[in-house]
């Protein structure tokens, strides 16, 4: 599985979601003006990235199962 390029695309998408999540939680924890100004935008970015990651995961599973043959 580690030789599959699509696996690495899915893994990268998951890492991107994790990075956005950590950034959002960190800014939320600090509070302040930046958080008030950008919290909703960061959440929207995370939701969009998570949606893309889920689609990639589903596509990977479908292509690597009998459905993609």
TrEMBL record:
<keyword id="KW-1133">Transmembrane helix</keyword>
<feature type="transmembrane region" description="Helical">
    <location>
        <begin position="45"/>
        <end position="63"/>
    </location>
</feature>
<keyword id="KW-0812">Transmembrane</keyword>
<protein>
    <recommendedName>
        <fullName>HIG1 domain-containing protein</fullName>
    </recommendedName>
</protein>
<keyword id="KW-0472">Membrane</keyword>
<feature type="transmembrane region" description="Helical">
    <location>
        <begin position="6"/>
        <end position="25"/>
    </location>
</feature>
<feature type="domain" description="HIG1">
    <location>
        <begin position="1"/>
        <end position="69"/>
    </location>
</feature>
<dbReference type="Pfam" id="PF04588">
    <property type="entry name" value="HIG_1_N"/>
</dbReference>
<dbReference type="InterPro" id="IPR007667">
    <property type="entry name" value="Hypoxia_induced_domain"/>
</dbReference>
């Amino acid at each position: 599985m580690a030789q599959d390029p699509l696996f690495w695309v899915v893994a990268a998408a998951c890492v991107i979601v994790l990075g956005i999540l950590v950034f959002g939680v960190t800014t939320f924890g600090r509070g302040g003006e930046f958080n008030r100004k950008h919290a909703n935008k960061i959440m929207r970015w995370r939701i969009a990235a998570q949606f893309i990651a889920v689609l990639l995961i589903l596509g990977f599973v479908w292509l690597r199962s009998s459905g993609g043959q």
